[in-house]
Write a structure and sequence with these properties.
Length: 208
């Protein structure tokens, strides 16, 4: 009888644990969809509410500064037609986080950008699941004080390199462009420079 009572007691607990996990899975997936939907709609001023305050604080950003960084870079590059694909949310190493991956395709003022692959985590903050933000969610490889360069090659072939001349990718044709993260230069102005088929976008207000 005691064994039967133990089974009857354990089953509801296991069922509750299963339901709670399923609920967390759904909420984390919803958080990922909300973030990427706002991004695809180019509603950059609404992204701040979709990310954890802790991730911004750890990087020294406010919500407004993060949103302005998207606006400055994406608008400066003439980004449009953002498409999200391969959105995946999977349980992390512990019950407090999820792994997030997704791809973005977009058009720029110089042509179609090659598919960009993103990854981050989703954490629970103030009873809500939100994306842990980092600059690499603007473009993969970016860090806090990076600028980006948009490059194309009239010869229909070329390499995309980082600031250390390490090849990141090869441009297959003239209508595809590549992003190169680089350190910000001096000055606090928002600039866009054209040298042939090169654009450089600097963040509007550099943080020190």
């Amino acid at each position: 009888m005691a064994f039967r009572h133990l089974l009857l007691y354990l089953l509801p607990v296991e069922s509750l644990f299963f339901v709670l996990n399923k609920s967390a899975d759904k909420q984390a997936k919803n958080a990922a969809e909300e973030f990427t939907n706002q991004l695809a709609a180019q509603k950059y001023t609404q992204l701040g509410d979709q990310v954890t305050s802790k991730s911004l604080k750890d990087l020294g950003f406010t919500k407004k500064e993060m949103e302005e960084k998207y606006e400055t870079i994406f608008n400066g590059l003439g980004v449009k037609n953002i498409k999200v694909s391969n959105l995946n949310v999977t349980p992390g190493e512990n019950s407090h986080s999820y792994q997030l991956t997704y791809d973005l395709n977009m058009q720029t003022s110089l042509g179609k950008l090659k598919t960009q692959n993103y990854k981050s985590t989703i954490s629970k903050e103030d009873d809500a699941w939100k994306v842990d933000w980092l600059p690499a969610l603007i473009f993969p490889g970016m860090v806090k004080d990076d600028k980006v360069r948009l490059l194309t090659d009239e010869a229909k072939r070329g390499d995309i390199v980082d600031r250390n001349q390490k090849k990141l990718a090869t441009i297959g044709n003239f209508n595809e462009a590549g992003i190169v993260p680089e350190k910000l230069g001096e000055g606090d102005e928002k600039t866009k420079k054209h040298h042939g088929h090169q654009s450089e976008i600097r963040r509007a207000s550099r943080r020190h």
